Amino acid sequence: MLAGISLTCFTASYTVALALEATRLWFRSGLRGALMLAFAAAGVFAQTLYLGYRAATAEGVPLSSEFDYYLVAAWALAVVYLGWTVRQLNAPNERRTALGLFLLPLVLGLVAAAHFFGGKEPLPRETAHGVWLRIHIICQALGLMSVLVGLTTGVMELAQIYRLKHKVSPQRGLRLPSLEWLQQTGVRSVYASFLLLALGLLTGVILNLVNGQFPWNDPTVLRFSIVVMWQTAAATFLLVYRPARQGRKVAYITIATAVVLMVSVSLGHILPSAHGAPSKEKAALAPPVVDARIAHVDLNFGHRSCPCVIAAPPEGATS
């Protein structure tokens, strides 16, 4: 049963929820909120089962591939949207806002990135080191989710500032949250993403100290370090310089943070790296190690490879 759940199941649910969100531009409906909640809940439920099935049947470390990384981040964003929808339905006197029109495209974008760009090869189980690896994976996925939440609030904040500046009636177009709420959420997303990504980098360093699987100048290590340095600078700036927490500055910082992370992720598909690569690819990227007394010979027969180990003759022996 669970094997029959695919990306199409929850992608279709999120797409319908997004279409319902888009209808806010043209008309109001009391039934729309319940329908959005139903489709969003169905999507989250189906994606939870899908991720659970992948975790249970994984040959390597569960949910450790790049494919799973994108899907876990998409799932976390979908949960945020679902919680927001439930909150608004339970507060009938509160003004309904079109947060889903900004969040759901990011959810679908992450699912598309997983499908088209995410490698499905998990980390081998022999590289796992218990809680450190789990913390590393979870922090990276939740850090990405926090950055995208900040991107959403930043775009909405700029749109709200434009509407207020040009005195656009609140009854026209999209209903957006207040500037105060958007700024507070944007600042918190920067703090949260900094803590999560910094912890992800720290646990990655610990794992590499234990495993020693790839060099410290690996492109992935350098890219991730640059992202964390940017996050550190952004969080420190917001924490120390109080005026930066108001106006367009928060929006610019959250959007720039998302751009830095997206550029880093994009470079990950271009630059070769031993990080997260299958064992065979790591062996190909790593420098060869030749033992003084053992020679390794690879005999190829068609599409099959037969690795043979030939011991060198003892010193003084004649051929």
Put the structure in a nutshell.
This protein is mostly helical.
Helix-strand layout with pairing:
Elements: H1 7-22, H2 32-57, H3 66-89, H4 100-116, H5 131-165, H6 179-211, H7 219-240, H8 248-268, H9 279-285, E1 294-301, E2 304-311
Antiparallel strand pairs: 1-2
- State the oligomer: single chain
Number of domains: 1
Q: Gap between N and C termini, in Å?
A: 63 Å
How much β-strand is present in the residues? 5-15%
**What is the ordering of alpha helices and beta strands?**
HHHHHHHHHEE
Mean pLDDT: 78
Helix content: 55-70%
Low-pLDDT residue spans: 278-313
The tally of beta strands, per DSSP, is 2
What does the largest sheet look like? 2 strands, antiparallel
Nearest-angstrom radius of gyration?
24 Å
Shape estimate: globular
* SS element count, helices: 9
Strand order of the largest sheet: 1-2
Which structural category do the helix and sheet elements fall into? mainly alpha
What does this entry look like structurally?
- It is a single chain.
- The protein is mainly alpha-helical.
- The chain has one domain (2-285).
- The chain has 9 helices and 2 strands, in the order H-H-H-H-H-H-H-H-H-E-E.
- Strands 1-2 form a two-stranded antiparallel ribbon.
- A hairpin with a 2-residue loop joins strand 1 (294-301) and strand 2.
- Helix 6 packs antiparallel against helix 7.
- The N and C termini lie far apart (63 Å).
